[in-house]
């Protein structure tokens, strides 16, 4: 069963681009990643799905129902927007109790459990909170009614690494209890840690939908090397090397292949410096474009 179904969804803002013919399904019980650079159309897709903005064409449903025609379906979902804005003068606990009142169930115990996990002070006023702590309020607010569908739009921005880890553990636990998760981010490594499948969006269009296991099999690395003598040009012709750039005694390139084999080649060089990391999202997109072409 599909919890989310999006068919040919388009949203135009006058002459400005929004999203164009977006198609994707999210299955019950999965953690689905929705990834793309800032401005790619992630938030527009989510807001249109939730019925917060009207589509130009196409359709989107949650649990088989449109949020426009059946707003009651929103009671079954938790939503964390990319930016959170609250009544500054309210205390955190009062805001969360006010939010819980919409669901006509006692969420007091769950509010306190979530606040403890996220290290959130319920007695403080919203105005006294840092950006990261306001994000924690949004996380608790989105989960306090134990929703069947959790929609997260850039949820980790503002959270320190320890809190990000706690957040990921919390989402995994909610998923184990049966919740379906739609996780939007511009950070590929976050999505790889958490998700079963991922859709890539760029300039308003879905360019690839992939299983995370397949992405990991095709794991790309960005390698930068600085040598004390001349760069050996033969490295450019090694299988799996692409985007090869030389500047003086430094070279950087993307490599997909056996890292042991590459390290043996590098070990023969007179190294001054080396770094190995993840390529950025744009670089991964470009590989998908090249494959499609």
Radius of gyration: 22 Å
Low-pLDDT ranges: none
Number of DSSP strands? 13
Shape field:
globular
Distance between the termini: 33 Å
The CATH topology of the largest domain is given as Rossmann fold
Strand order of the largest sheet: 5-6-7-3-8-9
Mean of residue pLDDT? 89
Q: How is this structure best described in words?
A:
By secondary structure, this protein is an alpha/beta fold. It has three domains: 1-76 and 147-166 and 175-214, Rossmann fold; 87-146, no CATH class; 219-291, Alpha-Beta Plaits, CATH 3.30.70. Helices cover 31% and strands 31% of the residues. It is built from nine helices and 13 strands. It has helices at 42-49, 92-100, 108-117, 131-143, 161-176, 188-194, 212-217, 259-267, 281-292; strands at 2-13, 16-27, 31-35, 57-62, 77-80, 149-153, 180-185, 197-202, 205-211, 221-227, 241-247, 250-255, 271-277. The strands form three sheets. A six-stranded mixed sheet has the order 5-6-7-3-8-9, with helices on both faces. It has a four-stranded antiparallel sheet with strand order 11-12-10-13, covered by helices on one side. The longest helix has 16 residues, at 161-176. The chain is globular and about 70 Å long. The chain starts with a strand and ends with a helix. 30% of the residues are buried. Keywords: ATP-binding, Nucleotide-binding, Transport. This is ABC transporter ATP-binding protein. Belongs to the ABC transporter superfamily.
């Amino acid at each position: 069963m599909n919890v989310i179904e999006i068919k040919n969804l388009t949203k135009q803002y006058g002459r400005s681009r929004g999203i164009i013919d977006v198609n994707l399904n999210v299955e019950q019980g999965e953690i689905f990643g929705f990834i793309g650079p800032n401005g790619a159309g992630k938030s527009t897709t989510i807001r249109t799905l939730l019925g917060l903005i009207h589509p130009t064409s196409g359709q989107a449903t949650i649990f088989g129902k449109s949020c426009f025609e059946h707003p009651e379906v929103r009671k079954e979902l938790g939503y964390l927007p990319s930016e959170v804005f609250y009544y500054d003068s309210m205390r955190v606990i009062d805001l969360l109790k006010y939010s819980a009142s919409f669901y006509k169930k006692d969420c007091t115990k769950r509010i306190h459990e979530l606040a403890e996990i996220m290290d959130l002070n319920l007695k403080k006023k919203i105005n006294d909170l840092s950006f990261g702590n306001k994000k924690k309020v949004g996380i608790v607010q989105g989960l306090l009614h134990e929703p069947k569908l959790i929609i997260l739009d850039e949820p980790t921005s503002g959270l320190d690494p320890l809190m990000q880890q706690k957040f990921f553990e919390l989402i995994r636990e909610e998923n184990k209890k049966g919740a379906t998760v739609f996780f939007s981010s511009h950070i590929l490594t976050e999505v790889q840690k958490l998700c079963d499948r991922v859709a890539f969006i760029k300039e308003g269009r879905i360019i690839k939908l992939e299983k995370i296991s397949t992405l990991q099999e095709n794991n790309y690395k960005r390698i930068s090397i600085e040598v004390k003598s001349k760069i050996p040009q033969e490295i450019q012709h090694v299988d799996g090397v692409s985007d090869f750039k030389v500047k003086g005694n430094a070279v950087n390139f993307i490599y997909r292949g056996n890292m042991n084999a590459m390290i043996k080649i590098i070990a023969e060089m007179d190294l001054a410096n080396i770094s190995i990391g993840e390529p950025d999202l744009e670089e991964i997109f470009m590989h998908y474009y090249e494959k499609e072409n």
